[in-house]
Amino acid sequence: KYNVATFNGNKKLYSSFRSSFMAIVGDADICEKEKAVRLLDSLSGEPLEYLQTICADSIWQGTHEEMWEMLDDLYGSCDTQVAIHIKKLTDFEPLKNLGENELRRFKVMLNEIKSFYRKFNISQLYYKYANEVLTLKSKMQPKHLTMYDLFLQDKNKHDCILSMRDWVVYLWSSSHRSNMLNESLTKESSKRVLTA
């Protein structure tokens, strides 16, 4: 009846684990002590050991809420989410040729940054010297940086996360249109050859 995936301490999975647990068990019509027991049953590894040490086999009415506060501090706090966010950026593979697949990957990363800051600090999206902009620029070739600077000048934009995302969307849509045009021209010339 209460099937929830086990959480083992992987910080990337914490948010989905929390949402899933709350939807299945958190909103269920059972007492808070039962919810606390179910939460312990849904944990393994470090988070389970941590809560077992704190609770010391003594579960009371407020334990369920306190357990979530402890888990949030360890796995879901703003600081934790920031650390995960920075790691993703650091691990982002440098751009080589700005082909369609690279542009898609770049666009996904910029969308993640946008979503992250909408959640934690929306003003950072407009900040000229945001660490994310500097980090992503370090992953670009000099010719790409020149293209980006020309885009900023042409569109009268300042250098920020949203402008970088606009540039990637512009390049991606141009690349996508170009590929579609090339495909249709190839098909058209193939039809001419077949009918000739």
Topology of this protein?
Elements: H1 11-26, H2 32-41, H3 45-55, H4 63-76, H5 78-91, H6 100-120, H7 131-138, H8 142-155, H9 161-195
Helix pairs in contact: 2-4, 4-5, 5-6, 6-9
What would you say this structure looks like, in words?
- The chain is mainly α and about 200 residues long.
- It is about 75% helix and about 0% strand.
- The protein is built from nine helices and no strands.
- The protein has helices spanning about 10-25, 30-40, 45-55, 65-75, 80-90, 100-120, 130-140, 140-155, 160-195.
Order of helices and strands: HHHHHHHHH
Work out the strand percent: under 5%
Helicity range of the residues?
over 70%
Mean pLDDT: 80
Largest sheet: none
Q: Which shape, going by the Cα principal axes?
A: elongated
**What structural class results from the helix and strand content?**
mainly alpha
Low-confidence stretches: none
Rg, nearest Å: 24 Å
Helical element count?
A: 9
- For the secondary structure, the number of strands is 0
What is the straight-line distance between the termini?
Answer: 67 Å
Supply the key terms.
196 residues, mainly alpha
In short:
By secondary structure, the chain is mostly helical.
